[in-house]
Write a structure and sequence with these properties.
2 domains; 9 helices; Alpha-Beta Plaits; Peptidase_M20A; hydrolase; 30% helix; Aminopeptidase
């Protein structure tokens, strides 16, 4: 079988930047999906492309087990942009046991581990079979996992391992989010006569100060800590000698399990518009995602924890502050654990990389997890 370094170097070398910011060569997931399909076919596993958006497919393969139950191994094909990287984003350079490039850890490293695990399980089936899915659009609007859920239908999937860089610790909880735009409405004027205008930037400063000082009123989660709310972008002003009549900010509110993001947004809207009645508008959310809180005793997370403990690895379930496809799978009735090689601190970074030894270890741990379900747990 192809080594993890060879496989990951080939995958990193195929640009698959999410086209959320534009389009052109290297944007979209079609080329990497085709590579995954062909690599699996070369190792005896039939896979197919399932188009979710025009030219943007998922790739899905099924490895039968000896019994009817299936475990989903899901990771994503797309990456974030490469602007500002300090290395060649697509060279797949290997140095000191690490492979460098965009997507190395987020999330082609986890996907490579899953692909190699699928080949092992195809050669010597476990009781449980595997559905292996590389999905599009995780870095933007999650259309890939939603398409996958529709395709799975009533397949007997008992749980999922979602490939993300967790440092090889099992994560059964992560935050959700709701993102929205807030607008301050002033009255534009000439900067030489500011008293005749209403400065929207000055108005917005009151909103920003309030957001910085007023923490979300919700109890912390035992694995995730507190909910958070912060300003991520600001836009205002038309010139150096014009009092701005409009100013906008974007807000990122990270939600906890049990919070409905739309309810959170409605409360935030009431709170912020009350600060300056008639001068503040709050748009409907442009991103809504739910938190994850999978019971640790669910079959797949529990099996993974047992395997980690037997391997002398940290086995206690953890929480992660970032969002993943796992929350969508869990809402569809598939208990999910997030797991994979690499660190989230390397994801999206200027010199993104992953340790190849961790990719190999992830393969071994995933195979052992699938095999440990042979005892018949459901």
């Amino acid at each position: 079988m192809t080594s993890s370094g060879e496989l990951l170097r080939a995958m990193v070398g195929i640009a698959s930047v999410n086209p959320r910011a534009g389009s052109g060569p290297g944007f979209g997931e079609a080329a990497i999906a085709e590579y995954v399909r062909d690599w699996l076919a070369g190792h005896g596993i039939e896979a197919e492309l399932r188009e979710v958006l025009p030219g943007r497919p998922n790739v899905v393969a099924t490895v039968p087990g000896r019994g009817p139950r299936m475990v989903l191994l899901e990771s994503h094909l797309d990456t974030v942009e490469t602007t500002g990287m300090s290395i060649d984003p697509f060279a797949g350079t290997i140095r000191d046991g690490r492979l460098y490039g965009r997507g190395a850890c987020d999330a082609k490293g986890p996907l490579a581990a899953f692909m190699r695990a699928a080949v092992e399980l195809a050669a010597d089936p476990a009781e449980a079979g595997v559905v292996l899915a590389g999905v599009m659009d995780e870095e933007h609007a999650y259309q890939g996992v939603l398409g996958l859920i529709s395709d799975l239908g009533d397949m007997p999937v008992v749980g999922a391992i979602v490939g993300e860089p967790t440092g090889l610790v099992p994560a059964t909880a992560h935050k959700g989010c709701v993102r929205y735009t807030v607008r301050a409405l002033g009255r534009a004027g000439h900067s030489s006569r500011p008293d005749e205008a209403v400065n929207a930037v000055t108005l917005m400063s009151r909103v920003i100060d309030h957001i910085a000082s007023a923490e979300p009123d919700v109890a912390p989660h035992p694995l995730l800590g507190p909910a958070t709310r912060c300003v991520t972008r600001i836009r205002g002003g038309e010139g150096p000698n014009t009092i701005p009549g409009r100013c906008e900010i974007d807000i990122d509110r990270r939600t906890l399990p049990g919070e409905d993001p739309l309810d959170v947004w409605r409360r935030d809207r009431a709170e912020l518009t009350a600060l300056l009645p008639g001068q503040i508008e709050v748009d409907e959310p442009f991103t809504v995602d739910y938190a994850l809180d999978t019971p640790a005793a669910s079959p797949v997370p529990a099996a993974l924890c047992r395997v980690l403990e037997a391997a002398g690895r940290p086995a206690a379930v953890q929480g992660m502050p970032f969002g993943t496809d796992a929350s969508k799978l869990a809402r569809a009735g598939i208990p999910s654990v997030v797991f994979g090689p690499g660190s989230i601190t390397d994801a999206h970074s200027a010199d993104e990389s992953v340790a190849l030894a961790d990719v190999d270890l992830a393969t071994r741990l995933v195979v052992d997890t699938i095999r440990s379900l042979d005892g018949g747990q459901t």
